[in-house]
Each structure stands twice: as structure tokens, then as C-alpha cells.
Amino acid sequence: MTEHRTPLARVRGLGSAKSGTEHFWRQRLTAVANVPLTIAFVLIVVSLLGRNHAAAQQILGSPLVAIVILLFIGSVTYHMRIGMQVIIEDYVHDEVAKLALIMLNTFFAIAVALASAYAIFKLSFGV
Amino acid sequence: MAGSKAPARPLSPHLQIYRWPLPMLMSILHRITGAGLYVGTLLMAWWLIATASGPNAYATFGGFINSWIGQLILFGYTWALTHHMLGGIRHLIWDTGRGFSQSEREWLSLATAVGSIGLTVLLWVVGYLSIGGAQ
Q1: Which residue, of A19, A43, A61, A108, has the fewest CB within 10 Å?
Q2: Which spans in chain B are helix H?
């Protein structure tokens, strides 16, 4: 049978380069964001050590602290999702298990992000 | 191979035999600390949800985190965080194409190890001092 497609058309969309650089770039983008956000987060945690519930509630719900923690949650959970996906792809070679774990990985990252963000919103708006 | 003469040259040493280069150890630790931080976000989520839920949930979380096992986990988490952050900065330097010479690789890897332990101890000293101030 004669092949009518050009060699380039046949390889397009195949191979590991489908979204490899985007993955790499987002890992670096969130890594850079994580540095100041993590420092800020650690400072917030240190300032909250040993405080009672009322104080912790008030500080975590104050606008600046809440916004910094929300940014931290977003950047960190995105970063860890990409990172864990790389670990899964490196060590799990069974296609079904790999896809299942990559899905679970996304579910975990979104669940942690949403639960943490929900807590911050609740603390901020006091509902 | 069976019956053939043993080659008269030294065999390449395997992982268990040769001294681990420091950058290799730091690379392995970068991945392990990353995985640890991944699981550890559950602790952050628990802390935030407990604070949002009320004094009882907050006290339950406090009871866990102030127990010896909680403190041990938090100490390990602090080190994982500082190690992964310094290791990440090292990777960002490497991403620019810099720091690849023998001496620079060794120096950057040593800085990650020493820096992470130093920062962890510093944070815990500051932490305990700040608790004394808050009470």
C-alpha cells in the first residue's frame, strides 16, 4: 500500500516531546515562585507557634497572610503534582498502573489545594 | 562468556562499592525530600482545616504536632523543605548553564547539605524562642 503522508506528518504528535518543554517550564516557573512563597509561609508558621486558636484564626484570616498562603498553596500543589508525575513515569512502567497513579496524583494535588484554600477562605470570611 | 578467560582489567565498581559522589547523593535526596514534602502537605491541610473548624479541632492538631512523634515529623519536614529549596536553587543555577565544573558541583552540593541542616537548626531555635515569647 502506498504511503501518501509525508514523513513529517507521520511523526507529528508522537514521541515524548508532545508536551515535554511545557512540563519542564512549569516546573521551573513554580520552583521560582516557591522560593519567596515558602520563606513567607515559614515566617507565618513561626509567628503562629504556641498561639491559641483565637489568635491563629485571626492571623490566618487576615488579608495579607491569607493571600500569601493561597499563592503558596497554588504554586506548591502545582509543583508537587508535576514532580510526582516525573517520579511515577520514572519508576512505573506498566501502562495501566502508570495512568492510574498519574490520575491519583492529580486528584491528590487538587484535593489538598482545594481543602487548604477552603480553610483559608473560611478563616477569611468567617462563615 | 562461560569458560572464557577473565579479562585482565579491573571491573567497574558497582553502587555499593564506590564512594558516592556528593552531587549524586544530593540528587537522590532532592527526589526523596520532594516526595516527603508531597505527603507532608496533608499536615498543612490538616492544620489549616483544624484552625478553620474551631478550638476543638485546633487542640487535636496541637496535641499531635506537640507530641514527640509530631515534633519529629515536623523537624524532618523542616529539613526536607530547606533541603529541597536549596537543592532547587542549585538546579536553577544549573539551568542557566553555570556551576558545572568539578569544584563548583562539589561546592554547590556541599552548600545544599550544610545549608539545609544549618537552616533547620536555626528555624527550630527561633521557633522555640518565639514560643517562649508568645506565652
Answers
A1: A19
A2: 22-53, 55-65, 68-95, 102-134
Query: Please, what's the b/e burial string for B36-54 (b: 16 or more CB within 10 A of its CB; e: otherwise)?
Result: bbbebbebbbbbbbbbbee
Chain B residues within an 8 Å CB radius of A53: 51, 54-55, 58-59
**Within an 8 Å CB–CB cutoff, is residue B114 touching chain A?**
no
Question: In terms of CA atoms, which chain B residue is nearest residue A120?
Answer: B48
DSSP state of A10: H
pLDDT at B135 over 80: no
Look at residues B42, B71, B73 and name the one whose alpha carbon lies nearest to residue A119.
B42
Give the three-state DSSP class for B50: helix
Rounded to 10 deg, the angle between the B22-53 and B68-95 helix axes is: 130
Cβ-based contacts of A75 with chain B (< 8 Å): none
Give the separation between CA B109 and CA B100, rounded to whole angstroms: 11
ipTM given for this complex: 0.85
